[in-house]
Structures are given as C-alpha cells and as structure tokens.
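Appendix B: a complete holo record

For completeness, this appendix reproduces one full record from the ligand-bound portion of the collection. The bound molecule is zinc ion. The inputs are the chain sequence and the ligand SMILES; the output is the full three-dimensional arrangement of the complex, encoded as structure tokens. No fields have been trimmed.
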Amino acid sequence: MFIKDFISLFYPIYCLACGKNLVKNEECICTHCLVSLPKINFYSNENPLMDKFIGRVYIEAAIASYYFKKGSTMQHLMHQLKYKGQKNIGEYLGLLMGIDIMEDDTLKSIDLILPIPLHPNKIKKRGYNQSEIIAKGVQKATKKPLNTHSLVRHIETDTQTKRSHYNRWENIHNVFKVIDPKPLEGKHILLVDDVITTGSTLEAATHTLLAVPNTKVSIACLAFATF
Ligand SMILES: [Zn+2]
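The structure of the chain with zinc ion bound, as generated:
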C-alpha cells in the first residue's frame, strides 16, 4: 500500500471545488472540475492581458491560465489558496501554468521566476505568500530558478478596491524596492501573481525591475479578472 493511499484512509482527500472524493492521480481538484475551469487560450504576444499594460509599462509577454469571475469556482479556489491555507491548489495550478509557459516561444526564454512579494506584516498574518506558492509550481515545470529575495515590498498598501485608477497608481508607486540587483541583471524575469485585476501591482513591480540594467519582464498569473 502506498503511503498516500494509507493516509487517505484516515484523511479522505476531497476536491476543493465540488467536495467529491478525489481518485488516484487527482490532486486538490477532480478532473471534472479542472476541465470545467474557464481556461484562457491566448498566448504571450498580442493578447487582452498584454493590452492591459499598453502605455503603462513594457512587458515582453504575459500569460494567464483562467478567467476569474465573481462567484466562480476559480474565485473559490483562489480564496482557498489565499486565506484558507490550501497551498497545494496554488502549487498544482502553478505547475500546469508552467507547462503552458514552456510551450510559448517568448516565455520559455525566461531566466528566473520572481513571485510578487508581500509586505512582511502580511506574511506574518497569513503565514505565506500565495504568489510564491504558485511560483514553486511554475518552477517544477520550467526548472528555472526561483528568486524570492531580490525584490521587496517595503510599503504596506491599503485595500485598493475603492480607489480611482490614478490614486491607485499613486498608492502603489514606489511600493517595491530591489535590494539585491545582481541576480537580476541582464535577465528575463517572470513575475508571478495569483489574480490580475487592475494590473497596477504588476505594473509597479515591473517598473522597479526594469530599473535594473538590461532586464526584461514577463508576467504569469493564475487568474485574469475581467470585471
Ligand atoms: Zn470537483
């Protein structure tokens, strides 16, 4: 008997989306729920995600795995990852995104993976950075190095939902800081985040990273909110 089968006798493993028992080779989410997620099929150059950054900051390529709508399974899964300690789902979906990344002509040339950092106070509260969990999954598939120390978030921002775009940008501007530029110099960096909504966090982080000599930045998000 495999250890996993043994453990599941005592701790049945359920699908995080529908609650049904998982069968062999299913991880965190059952096959039915996984194929029902609204997969995004556009790739790197020229896609709606790239369009979000036009006139704001230069991005090499951008990828998102699934559409994100209010009340959707995807929102439920991201909530589980962010607030309920369900790290496995982030790492698993990150791994699937990593497989897509390696099939994309621009994205497969990334040199390193860099998750959007959280402010230390938030790490203390939550215990982990959900973007780092996703990045670990991406790393498993791409075999590219993970950098979690060069970029830091040194200003804690308030919830941004009620601010106008301009204020939001003001608020996020200078939030990030590069404390160790050496490993980033001349590199094509893949910035990883959980959900992209306004894009202002990724925009600010990209600006900060592009200040390091000869860097290129691409973006990978698990979910793309279109509301
Ligand atoms: Zn399910």
